[in-house]
## 1
Amino acid sequence: MTIQLVEQLKTLDQKHFLHPTSSIEEQQKYGPAAIFCEGKGIYLKDLEGNTYIDGMSSLWNVNVGHGRTEIAEVAKEQMEKLAFSSCFATFSNEPAIKLAAKIAELTPGDLNTVFFTSGGSESNDTAIKLARHYWILKGQPNRQKIISRSLSYHGLAYGSTNATGIEGFRKFTNSPAPDFHYVDKDSPEELRRLIEELGPEKVAAFISEPVQGAGGVNLPKPDYFQKVREICDEYGVLFIADEVITGFGRTGKNFGIEHFGVVPDMMTFAKGVSSGYAQLGGVIISEKIHKDFCELSKGILMHGYTYSGHPTACAVGLKNLEIIEREGLVQNAKIMGEEMLKGFQALQQKYDFIGDVRTFGLLGAIGLVKNRETGELFDPLLSPIAVQEMTKRGLILRTVTYGQDTIVFSPPLIITKNELNEMLRIVDETFAYLQKEIIGNGVK
Ligand code: PMP
């Protein structure tokens, strides 16, 4: 594409496209960061001819990598046969039925019945509404309160925004919804105290990511979820695991919560269920909840989206899960995750400004600090400069700057050892630049 045409697109973008979770100021000043036009495996290409490693699987979601012809073919076939039909009023379709059954087969314990959505935010809103409705059916209508953890991210629809523990997202508007409460992310004791304080008879559910993603790839203590499960059981509170990032192999097991040996009452999923090839998500509920719904629900379940059970999206999901299984990508995430940690530790040896490094399968984080002993952060923070420099060198990563200065990683589950080394080489090269040009010369 000619430079003129790219410039034209950039101008149109600035004028007509309000971007999600983006700096309007930066967009207006510089135009879009890149206009992507192609993807293959772990790589993305933009209209200006630059190639990048997609170190975040785009938004933690393109787990099987870009450019999968067989998924495109399935989508084409399904669209030609039946692109869309409704699942309201008990109408159904084959891909939705088969995908629900497949997900039930993969999920732990008695999580066996699926409600479909178009993404993670809708899934968490759905879980919150199903939990509250469940208690109404059970004759405990005052159980409406939802508890979540500091630094959690559950999406940006209305309920999921209010459940999100990263305050900045809630402050975007000035009218928080009632009945949302927050606890320190590391303290099960605080959860117990809050339930007692609110009154257990008023608490509907506790929601948590098994490993926090957008909050900084924050790993829980090994016994955290065991304690949470016990507390929820003790007070009759439902436990919702948000597996939107951690679901379908990212952590080296099918689901993140499986690492901790507990089974939630509901699990929400999105992203990895379709690797982003179609907009798809959902909630899977336990047999116990489903049985109660079957026995107690009269009339219509007053919740549903046009695209709940979208035939094309579900056909894409099925093919995506088939690829994950056929190519052993869950196991690859485990093995490559271990390699990624070794790579991070080698970098940590080399650069004093690296604080904590952590991985959980193919989720990773490198924390940057001015002082390792005190944990003091750079001012201004270093990670935004770092990822900008990495982009220039052909690697796309993300920062987390809520009370920390962290670079997060979430490469596609297909990544090979060589590709991982290439990614780490760019990180190394960028850190060497930062050491010399930014930190070394006293800017920091
Ligand atoms: N939950 C978690 C854990 C997420 O990471 C995200 C998205 N980053 C969401 C929910 C929201 O998903 P979506 O953006 O598809 O609505």
Note: The first strand starts at residue 36 and ends at 40.
## 2
Amino acid sequence: MKRDKILVIGAGGQLGAELTQGLWERYGKENVIATDIKGAEGVLATGNFEILDVLNTPQLISLISKNKFTQIYHLAAVLSATGEKNPRLAWKLNMDGLIEVLDAAVEYKVEKVYWPSSIAAFGPTTPKIKTPQDTIMDPTTIYGISKQAGERWCEWYFKNKGLDVRSLRYPGLIGYKTKPGGGTTDYAVDIYFKALSDKKFECFLKPDTYLPMMYMSDAVKATLDLMSAPSEHVKIRSSYNIAAMSFCPSEIAASIQKHIPEFEITYKPDFRQAIADSWPKSINDSAARIDWGWNHAFDLDEMTQEILSNLKL
Ligand code: AKB
């Protein structure tokens, strides 16, 4: 049987670190090269790792031409809140980085490419409840605009260059193994760390701000399942809606209080409130469930239990 050889770009990020470990389990550690602009930290340092700036085209091409990669996971991006502070950087990394990877994948005959989109590709006039797969998309952040445009680039490469590119519109991803980096949904990660260390947390969103969210192990499973689905089952080549749960800050606080009764949450909304208000509250992911069998495992209380018990160890 032919072996897969896999490149992960942006492996040091919140999703990248856990996805790389999922890829090790599924394809063997020796068949995965993890890369990031900064050096390997924690468990990533135990596998194949190289420094890579995806915007450094000669460096990217040299790595891809030396290895016969069958799959590339391109995760390097500036997220929503950081992107609003540095829009030019967000656009450059999120757009040029993607196009460089898609071009290199065509040139070096990489079989499959994965690229993450986000609920940030939707906007204020998108239907907010059970947001459909195909609907109005009017993103207001540079991150969201780059995701919307990226989806179109992915579909264009599929249709015009025959590249097998696959994508998911992630909701807020919640894990405890790496600290988050610059997203609007990241309060739902920080809150667990602060609940354990300080027994209190100041939230930058209002108590009733509902957003679609997903536990990291479900996100990793969704990504690996999509990438191993037979090509003819992957009918959407822009990006699939996927969902697991929706909650607001007061609900995650209540879930934590079941384990830490003295935990207190206070609210001080900032510029991220407007970003959250422009996004869907829940997502209709029936296309992913029908086309390639997506199903989530974790709800809010199960996730809280899992994260708190792991962080306490
Ligand atoms: C962010 O908050 O920017 C990200 C996202 C929803 O894509 N977590």
Note: The chain has a mean pLDDT of 97.
## 3
Amino acid sequence: MLAGKTAVIAGSTSGIGLGIAEALANQGSNIVLNGFGDANEIENLRNRLSRDHNVGVSYSGADISKPDQIGEMIEGARSAFGKVDILVNNAGIQYVAPVEEFPPEKWEAIIAINLSGAFYTTRMVVPAMKAEGWGRIINIASAHALVASPFKSAYVAAKHGIAGFTKTIALEVAEHGITVNAVCPGYVMTPLVQKQIPEQAKARGISEEAVVRDVLLAAQSTKEFVAVPEVAGFVAYLCSPEAKSITGAVMPIDGGWTAH
Ligand code: NAD
């Protein structure tokens, strides 16, 4: 379905982004992986994806908080595959602390990676997508783009920001065959969530088991974590021809969390 297309997935060496890379490669898209991690593991991942799905897979180690490195990533994608048809802004980090203890450098990093990165990637791909008359931009936001939780001031601010950014760009490019959407997962058990369990326990003065039961899954009505393939499959659907009228949407996949 996506044969001949190329997808750049910011933050795809782990978790949700890696699942999205698998799902889009499975549809025949070439893939540009991005993110941090062990060089050998990333190279193995690149080879496996390419072999399993018979698509081109390249890797950029660009730091999404650095606009010049984002420029190099997009230029690299163009020299490898000719164009960028699909952009998935998925790179993200989290930090959990009361606002008066929130380190300013963590605030700056979260805004840079979770919000500003999407501005820099988007502005670089939109002109060529317009010329092509086709494009898909998918921002992996969060249920925290729609509701708040205490101790996550930077993350919630960045994710609410990405929701507004998504709607704005959708309006700007709507007549050019480009859709722009935000997908808002509830809790998905990935390294990002695993890492915050001890932080949440410390910030709230409760056990790690209580964090899972009473914090993470408290509002998620299904009482289950969302699975990576559920998010990835939806992203693949948004890239399909049938999804061409879905744009400017900020859509939860959150087990009923934001229905409360
Ligand atoms: P993860 O930690 O497993 O993966 C994050 C990816 O981003 C990794 O590939 C990492 O290397 C990359 N990354 C981090 N900082 C980067 C930087 N400066 N430059 C380039 N790449 C960078 O996390 P995840 O849970 O898969 O999260 C992916 C996205 O989904 C994030 O935007 C996150 O906010 C969002 N999200 C996650 C959940 C969840 O419960 N896991 C819920 C809602 C939204």
Note: The chain has a mean pLDDT of 97.
## 4
Amino acid sequence: MDADAIAGDLTTVLYTPDQIRERVGELARDIDRDYADKDVLLVGVLNGAVMVMADLCRAMQSHCEMDWMAVSSYGSGTKSSGVVRFLKDLSADIHDRHVLVVEDIIDTGLTLNWLLSNLTSRGPASLEVAAMFRKPDAMQTDIDCKYVGFDIPGEFVVGYGLDFDGKYRNYDGLAILDPRVYN
Ligand code: XMP
Ligand code: MG
């Protein structure tokens, strides 16, 4: 769906589909360059990363494998609880693999922090992060994210995979959700 379809629920459109597509292309070129001499395993974090994973891997010119994991830290609210639940583990053994975690958004960073220590314990050859969006003002942990699409304000956003209570995930841009919707 496009912004017009949900205009009444949004306060500000931050990025249009064109802007997102262009930035994803740039990230793909960086990743192609950095992994030119190694096989990369893209690990997507469900459900939010579905859109960025689908676009990023198709914008890449090198081979990549894909795997998925699912964690939950939000329930149906808009604040990170810091308590992470493991909903689905990887299918692949990542020992000695070059792993690139693909995330929709880094907000507090608490979820990713937990995820990275979990993955590190499995002995990957390398472990990096690509996040489409990041809220620098909200981060509560120090995470080294090698590839960042856009740094955004600390408000609750929806679209391009990001949902509120299961909705807006299929909105094709990124926008700030009107607080009226969740208050
Ligand atoms: P943290 O705070 O642990 O975020 O970095 C964990 C997960 O919460 C989701 N998240 C959001 N979802 N709009 C959303 O629709 C947001 O503004 C937002 N901030 C965080 C997201 O799945 C992230 O991976
Ligand atoms: Mg996520």
Note: Strands lie at 10-15, 40-46, 64-72, 85-88, 98-106, 126-134, 147-151, 157-158, 174-177.
